[in-house]
Hints:
Blueprint: H1 2-31, H2 35-46, E1 51-53, H3 54-61, H4 65-77, E2 81-85, E3 93-97, H5 99-120, H6 126-140
Antiparallel strand pairs: 1-3, 2-3
Amino acid sequence: MDTICTINALRLLQSADEIKERLSGEFAAVHGLSVNEFFLLMHLSRAPAHRLSRVELAKRMHVSASTVTRMVAPMEKLGMVDREADTRDARLAFVVLNRTGRKKLAEAQQTFAKQAGYVFQDRWDDAELKQLSELLYRLVVGSTSNLT
């Protein structure tokens, strides 16, 4: 059982890397975004008031808070996100998805959907894709990174 779990975990990691690699070229060329920046915008778009703390973003993205800080700085300079202080605790700051970021995200989502089609549709039929989606959902259910 341990060997099967190890092989499956490795295959999932390799698959995730392959998908990110396929997406990254077009994202950078067309939208000026990395795949991780796209995911950051997705998390913000689904959060209440389109805002999250850096710590919460880090948890959802499975990265460190300092990684989020490094990602957010250029996005803030480009006007995709804003920083907002907590009204009750000035030490706490939120990353907020603004109008420009929402527009960029909407454009990038179209590219993401197109590229996802290229990744999956030439390999499996609709029933298999549905089963794969359900199995992957079971794997991440309850995870804070769940984007569904």
